[in-house]
Design a protein that fits this description.
Number of strands: 62
Shape: flat
Pfam families: CHU_C (PF13585)
Protein name: Gliding motility-associated C-terminal domain-containing protein
Helix content: under 10%
Oligomer: single chain
Distance between the termini: 109 Å
Keywords: Signal
Organism: Larkinella bovis
InterPro entries: FN3_sf, Ig-like_fold, T9SS_type_B
């Protein structure tokens, strides 16, 4: 992508000369960091600021030199530190800009996210888009994630200094030439500059946005872009970092800011702010034209030589420079170590007559490999006549360096104790003129079937959707690998394709181009299971037949006989607990019935069964049987059936070494039972991955054995089995493999609701009860009965009833019990109270529940009576004031005794489990009270149907008689 920048050189800006002695003349700056210790969280923190030192009565040279130190805040509280400039004097990087660098170290106490900030007291005076700019501080911030797991991480460095100025009506662009030494991903976004009015460099550490800041593209009367096709804009490319103002409308001094974000593995680990000042002039000079190379990708070890051309429409002399990590130069052109040598060069240097041709040259090697591209920014600047503004143009050149492909990959069958295996080998990995990092790895991938890949020229690794899966990693110096499928063994007779890729370590990362393919088969030296079919479906007498082939790669005449098959079985499609079933000795001679076994006495109705065969040969030295190998596991077909609305949904599965996909499976139906006889009703073309479905609505689409169409009825049962068709992958035998599932029976459902029952309950007549009814009774019972509705279009095929109950009328009843059809009454026993409500529903044989019946309720008949005289004389007769015999259904109560003067003299409360509202004629403290007339109040909560009802209050009087007198 091409970008354009403008640079001011002197003269025309006297109208903007700074007049306030407090101005610092800071044009731009940023804060960068790097961790410098592997043993502690110690970071080197660098502030880089650029000063405007244009000549004139108010020039900034003095301000730049006077800024001997700057206040740093490290984001750990409000602590600040004065940090001196690293050079004794401010250093000029051209005639109009100087650079001040301040550097310190700080050790963080623990991991976390920290915001580092620095403050310089004043900005330049007269900044058009910042009110009172001379009174507003210049404040920068950088955010870092401190975490030991990030290693010696550093923030990106910005290698292109912000020296360029703009011209009215022309597009201005800037690219910071950001480079991250760790190879982290970078992203860019605009930001509002920070600073406070009248802020000192000792102010708190929290940066705030500049008050009243304006987007510079909104300032001026004629705000249009350079092409005149739309309004002026200020944008940043989030990928390349090109910051462009298209185009300034008025002369003046402006400030903008943008953020460079640092990302690793999808997580943002830091961001830095660059604050930039743009000086816009009315120059008539035309900017030079620059043509840079297009983005490229190269294999490590490639010598990159690219041509850059530039011309100036005004015929001015030109200077071509370059910025970016490969040059190993900082923004002030001083040498720094960013990229392992050799560094890139750009020739020729210095002023040249227009047109000029430059050559970018970089000898890449293995240590330059990484995921992220290298960005190189080329900049050409013109040198016009005196009084004209210098203008510059930039072009970005992206370079991706990838690792070379591994060479000479080969694969062959291997003998491995852990199972069937393939041995891989390849040439020792080399890469250009430098060795790869010691922590790089060789990543091994495998897929079934040979495959031709034609990836893009710059594509590294394996393309998505190629079918390869990673099976292992080895150090970069290793040249062999044995694949035994992580100890489970590979399949014989299946072609396996292998490829390898070099993976460079994080954080930089990077991959090689994928190797050429190595494709190999394991010889077939063991039997193949060809059938696991259910012959009989029964809970105790089920039968499964297992068939297999003789070992295709074994010659019975080679002297390794006699041979032996050992058959093992486990329960379930994916069972692993195999137990021995049968041992079959064989000489592998044709015609012998040694490759079939009928497994009996199984519960085929409830279970699928899975089988494995181990093959043994005779060791010619010891004469003992020795296990050669084992087959892949193969299961029977498991069928499931679910009744639907006058239909049946079938689904079936099998776990087999052969493939049942892309074949026609057969569906059979019977009305006689799970073992038939069956009629084939459909042939299902199946795809997908080992799960197959069919819906039977009663039709029969297979006419060869007769058409047996049925009307699906909820009163009938239908039985099914399916026959799967499968095939082993080439080059194994191509015979179709047929296997039956177990038989299964099911009844369709009807969604019509059953008739709602009519419910009744025994009644309780409180008026007819005597005072001692239910005396001392602790448990109660309610009896309900119901009848079916006589009318309505509803399903009368009832399978059961659901009875619902709640003890409180205000609550929704909950399911109490399910009652078999034919029973029309229920006694609800062991209740602590007769209060409660019921309703009932009917449930059809299809599991459909009816609407609720009518709701019936019963309430208790509570009783509480108090006497009006008692004689506490200790004779054991009527000594206590308490309720008369058999209070009923009391949940809680409280008794209060009051004397004739209205004073409470005694109080007692009671729970329902202990209804003892007793007064023995004493005070609460146990002191005897005199005889006489007393008043009582009983507040009682009864167990009632309406559980939320408030307590009831009983009031009355009682006379306490004593032999000795006194007044109360």
């Amino acid at each position: 992508m091409k970008t354009y920048l403008l640079l001011v050189l002197g003269g025309l800006l006297n109208l903007m000369a700074v007049s306030d002695g407090r101005a610092t003349h800071v044009r731009a700056g940023e804060i960068t960091t790097r961790r410098i210790s592997s043993n502690s969280l110690t970071y080197e923190i660098t502030l880089t600021v650029y000063f405007d030192i244009r000549p004139g009565p108010n020039g900034g040279q003095g301000a730049a030199r006077a800024q001997n130190d700057v206040s740093f805040c490290f984001g750990a509280g409000q602590q600040t530190r004065r940090v001196p400039r690293i050079d004794a004097e401010s250093r000029n990087i051209n005639a109009y800009t100087s650079i001040n660098i301040y550097r310190t170290t700080y050790t963080y106490s623990g991991p976390g996210t920290y915001e580092i900030s620095c403050t310089i007291t004043n900005r330049n005076d007269g900044t058009r888009n910042i009110p009172s700019s001379v009174r507003t501080s210049f404040k920068l911030r950088t955010t870092i994630v401190v975490n030991a797991d990030l290693g010696l991480n550093s923030t990106p460095v910005l290698l292109n200094p912000p020296l360029d100025s703009a011209r009215v009506g022309q597009k201005w662009c800037h690219n910071p030439a950001a480079f991250d030494a760790d190879g982290d991903s970078l992203a860019y976004r605009l930001y509002t500059p920070s600073g406070r009015i009248e802020e000192t460099d000792q102010s708190p550490c929290n940066p705030v946005f500049v008050a009243g800041y304006s987007d510079p593209s909104t300032i001026g009367a004629n705000r249009v872009n350079e092409a005149g096709t739309g309004p002026a804009t200020l944008t940043v490319n989030p990928i390349t970092g090109d910051v462009c103002w298209d185009a300034p409308a008025e002369v003046g001094q402006y400030n903008i800011a943008f953020i460079v974000e640092e990302w690793r593995d999808g997580v943002k680990i830091g961001e830095i702010v660059r604050d930039v000042q743009i000086i816009v002039t009315p120059s008539i000079n035309k900017r030079p034209e620059l043509k840079g190379p297009d983005a490229i990708c190269v294999e490590a070890g490639t010598l990159i030589q690219q041509t850059i051309t530039a011309t100036d429409p005004d015929g001015n002399r030109l200077e071509l420079t370059g910025f970016g990590g490969p040059f190993n130069k900082g923004p002030d052109n001083t040498p720094i170590s960013l990229v392992p040598p050799p560094a890139a060069t750009l020739t020729p240097a210095g002023l040249q007559n227009s047109p000029i041709t430059g050559t970018f040259r970089w000898e890449t090697n293995c240590v330059h490999v990484r995921d992220e591209p290298y960005d190189v920014v080329f900049r050409v600047i013109d040198y016009p006549s005196t009084g004209q503004t210098q203008l510059a143009t930039l072009a970005t050149f992206r370079i991706r360096v990838y690792a070379p492909r591994p060479q000479n990959l080969a694969a062959r069958p291997a003998v491995d104790p852990a199972g069937r295996a393939i041995a891989l080998s390849w040439s020792l990995y080399t890469c250009g003129n430098a060795a790869p990092p010691a922590t790089a790895e060789m990543v091994i991938y495998r897929r079934e079937g040979c495959a031709t890949l034609t990836p893009d020229a710059c594509a590294t690794g394996l393309p998505a959707g190629s079918g390869y899966v990673e099976v292992g990693r080895v150090p970069i110096g290793q040249t062999t690998f044995t694949d035994n499928n992580r100890g489970t063994g590979l399949q014989r007779g299946v072609p396996y394709s292998y490829r390898i890729v070099v993976q460079y370590p994080r954080p930089g990362g990077g991959q090689s181009v994928v190797s050429e393919e190595a494709c190999v088969n394991l010889p077939q030296q063991v039997p193949l299971i060809t059938q696991v079919t259910v012959d009989t479906t029964d809970a105790v007498r089920g039968v499964v037949t297992v068939r297999w082939t003789r070992p295709l790669g074994i010659d019975p005449q080679d002297g390794a006989g006699p041979f032996q098959y050992r058959l093992f079985r486990t329960t379930g499609l994916d069972g692993t607990n195999f137990t021995p079933v049968a041992t079959i000795n064989t000489t592998l001679q044709p015609g012998m019935p040694d490759t079939v076994y009928t497994d009996r006495a199984l519960n085929t109705g409830a279970n699928a069964y899975r089988y494995r065969i181990e093959f043994y040969l005779t060791d010619p030295i010891s004469g003992q049987l020795q296990r050669l190998d084992a087959t892949e596991n193969a299961s029977s077909v498991r069928l499931a059936a679910t009744g639907g609305m006058r239909r049946v949904q079938l689904s079936w599965q099998a776990s087999t070494p052969w493939n049942n996909d892309n074949q026609v499976h057969r569906v059979y139906r019977s009305t006689s039972g799970p073992n038939g006889p069956f009629n084939r009703i459909a042939e299902v073309a199946v795809q997908g991955s080992n799960t197959y479905v069919f819906t039977d609505t009663g039709g029969d689409t297979y006419a060869a054995d007769g058409v047996g169409t049925v009307t699906m009825s909820t009163d009938s049962q239908y039985c099914y089995r399916v026959e799967t068709i499968g095939r082993y992958a080439s080059p194994l035998p191509t015979t179709l493999l047929c296997n039956y599932s177990q038989g299964i029976c099911v009844t369709p459902i009807d969604t019509t609701k059953p008739c709602a029952p009519v419910l009744a309950m025994d009644t309780l007549n409180c008026a007819s009860l005597t005072d001692d009814a239910f005396c001392n009774q602790t448990t109660f019972a309610n009896t309900v009965n119901w009848r079916t509705s006589a009318t309505g279009t509803c399903d009368r095929n009832v399978a059961k009833y659901n009875l619902y109950y709640t003890p409180c009328a205000g609550d929704e009843p909950k399911l109490l019990t399910a009652i078999d059809a034919g029973t029309m009454t229920y006694r609800h026993e062991n209740l602590t109270s007769m209060a409660g409500c019921y309703y009932i529903t009917a449930v059809s044989r299809s599991g459909v529940e009816s609407a609720t019946s009518n709701r019936v309720c019963k309430d208790n008949c509570p009783v509480l009576k108090m006497p009006n005289v008692f004689t506490p004389n200790g004779d054991g007769k009527n000594d206590v004031f308490e309720p008369t015999r058999c209070p009923r259904f009391i949940e809680s109560a409280e008794l209060t005794i009051i004397n004739r003067w209205g004073m409470n003299v005694y109080q007692v409360s009671s729970a329902s489990s202990d209804v003892r509202l007793q007064w023995e004629g004493k005070t609460d403290r146990g002191q005897d009270l005199p005889g006489g007339l007393y008043y009582y109040q009983v507040k009682v909560k009864f167990r009632r149907l309406h559980c939320e009802a408030p307590p009831e209050v009983y009031k009355g009087w009682v006379e306490m008689l004593k032999e000795t007198g006194g007044t109360n």
